[in-house]
Design a protein that fits this description.
The structure is a single chain. The protein has about 375 residues and is α+β, with helices and mostly antiparallel strands. It is about 30% helix and about 35% strand. It has seven helices and 21 strands. The two termini are about 35 Å apart.
Amino acid sequence: MKKIFALLILSIFSINSFAFAVPLQGHIEENDEFRQMQEELFTGKIEHLERKDIINMSVTQVIDSSYSMEGDEFFAQVTTDVYGDEGVIIPKGTIAHGKISQTGDPGKMGKQAWIDLSFDYLVTPDGREIPIEGAMTTKLHPVAETSKIIAQDVGYTLAGGALGGLLALNYLGWEAAILSNGYTLAGGAAIGGAIGLGAALKRKGKEVLIAPGDEIKVKINTNISLPVYKEEALKQEELLYPGLDIFISNVKHEEDPFGEMNTITLTVTISNMSDKELSGFDMALVNDYNSVFRPSVFGDTKMMFKTIKSGEKVAGFVSFSVDNIHRDFWLTFYDRRTGKAITKISVDNAYRKMSKKEKKKNEKRRRKNQNFKKETDLFEIE
């Protein structure tokens, strides 16, 4: 049953995510049609996916250490292109099959729960199945985990000591503190410190939660040769309107005011030589599931309230709060009268042209935001 379900999921993702997908399952004769497809997709050069490589992925369903079990299967999607020296060898959107290989429960003294994930194959947009050995863990290095727990527990103890000192000062007064040469404060701090230490020893670590949109880093333990994709083969389709030129020069991944990494900020130049008058209210970001996201009021709002008349050229920033920052998106303008899309510009196409420096900045911001800790439910009774 699990195998049937796995094949069903893979087929759904292949259809929805890749307009150029051509399933290559089972035995394939190397006929003229197959060779032509190979020539359209690949440059003819070969690169190597090596043991040192890391692949960024995002799971397609929730993995929760409080109920997920060892052996459970899941799927993930590659969130950023994997490059060789000559170009892309594994494109964004490639599907990965994985299993939960091991789990660990949270313990006292703040010891966190952990999950080990393993990956055994990838399915590329053109339908190739690539066997791999990949692994990812949420477990900290023992030294790092111990130092983190110690730092947190010292924090608990210091907080307890400060609270004890304040209570002693409040109830016994400054006079008692002066007459006793500060012993009342020291005693109160000692009691408070003991209370804080007790709380630290009792404190239980958090469960692990990996949700769709969270980015995981999968270490590859396989050396494998792969063909290099042509740039044209990876381009997303776009909808253009005569006289309306839209250029996305930068894509920035940011946190919203609540600390969630769900904001995409675009640097956009618009040259409107068309017969349309445009407004920021006619603009949206649309993903590959046709979900529509309007400009965010938490970002730069100048372009949102800007009217772009025929013959005008404007440049600026516009931000969108989205549900999953790793999906495919198109910057879309709608006809105000009919409500239909008149132009759709691929954010992915623009992202591929960005410098490695800017991409690394985005990756650093995403990594800083991720901790995989499951927050305590306020309504959960222990």
